[in-house]
């Protein structure tokens, strides 16, 4: 018995041609329109049921890329979605996966985060060539990305499947999400939002809402003029010690 390894990016199965930019490609099996770049001139029909969803993805003509250090997070989705590729830095399959692309040149680099790996791949000539060979209109998704990642993806001719980084960072704030939940009438854990300039003021703010002594504190900002931090205080978790408050003030 013998085993033969091959590089997936050099011997992948034949690919269907990617249509040129235009109003869309009629997918008769699903009865929908799959756009391959360019303006969408026709509305897409709703997908009614699992059969429509399966047909939509199985007949996808748009190149889709998951860009990440490894394929782990979306591993297996390529079996359901046509023209889906993994662009990764670490070769988990040693060239044996037909949908995983790994650039040949991978010098030792001490990456600081998953986002750094994605940014590196989007600057790599081999990776950019792989994307270009599959035609325009591609889309990319990530686990971690920032404004630089978005810009590099757009430079590579890719649309990013995620909301803008600024919006994601904003919605990542517990204070912002608590306010939105309040406006929508969605109950949250007992909490209060206000301003405090000292540890005593912080405790008084919590006591005014009847939160007790065991608190979680989220500090949003401190204005230079007043040195008073906007805080969201909730009645769960561990108490915020005095030295935590002092450290927040020193960084503001």
Brief synopsis:
29% of the residues lie in helices and 17% in strands.
Q: Can you walk me through this structure?
A:
By secondary structure, the protein is of the alpha/beta class. It has helices at residues 50-58, 114-121, 125-133, 147-155, 165-171, 174-184, 199-208, 242-251; strands at residues 25-27, 32-34, 64-68, 84-88, 100-101, 139-141, 159-160, 191-196, 216-222, 229-234. The chain contains eight helices and ten strands. Strand 9 (216-222) and strand 10 form a beta hairpin.
Task: Give the arrangement of secondary structure elements.
Blueprint: E1 25-27, E2 32-34, H1 50-58, E3 64-68, E4 84-88, E5 100-101, H2 114-121, H3 125-133, E6 139-141, H4 147-155, E7 159-160, H5 165-171, H6 174-184, E8 191-196, H7 199-208, E9 216-222, E10 229-234, H8 242-251
Spans where pLDDT lies below 50 across 5 or more residues? 1-39, 221-228, 236-243
Helix content: 25-40%
* Beta fraction: 15-25%
* Major sheet: arrangement of strands: 5-4-3-6-7
Number of strands: 10
The coarse silhouette is: elongated
Which structural class fits the helix and strand makeup?
alpha/beta
What's the rounded overall pLDDT mean? 77
Terminal residue distance: 66 Å
What's the assembly state of these chains? single chain
Main attributes of the structure:
252 residues, alpha/beta, 2 domains
């Amino acid at each position: 018995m013998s085993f033969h390894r091959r590089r997936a990016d050099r011997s992948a199965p034949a690919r269907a041609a990617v249509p040129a930019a235009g109003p869309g490609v009629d997918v008769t099996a699903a009865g929908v329109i799959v756009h391959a770049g360019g303006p969408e001139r026709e509305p897409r029909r709703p997908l009614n049921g699992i059969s429509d969803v399966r047909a939509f993805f199985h007949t996808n003509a748009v190149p889709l890329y998951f860009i990440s250090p490894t394929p782990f997070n979306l591993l297996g989705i390529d079996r359901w979605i046509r023209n889906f590729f993994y662009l990764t830095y670490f070769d988990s399959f040693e060239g044996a996966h037909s949908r995983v692309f790994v650039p040949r040149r991978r010098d030792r680099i001490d990456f600081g985060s998953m986002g750094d790996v994605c940014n590196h791949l989007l600057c790599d000539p081999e990776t950019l060539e792989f994307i270009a060979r599959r035609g325009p209109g591609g889309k990319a998704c990530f686990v971690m990305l920032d404004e630089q990642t978005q810009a590099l993806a757009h430079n590579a001719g890719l649309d990013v499947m995620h909301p803008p980084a600024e919006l994601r960072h904003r919605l990542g704030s517990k204070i912002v999400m608590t306010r939105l939940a309040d406006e929508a009438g969605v109950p949250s854990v007992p909490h209060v939002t206000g301003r405090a300039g000292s540890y005593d003021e912080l405790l008084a703010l919590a006591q005014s809402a009847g939160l007790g002594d065991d608190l979680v504190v989220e500090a949003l900002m401190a204005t230079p003029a007043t040195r008073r931090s906007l805080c969201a205080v909730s009645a769960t978790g561990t108490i915020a010690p005095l030295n935590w408050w002092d450290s927040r003030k020193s960084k503001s």
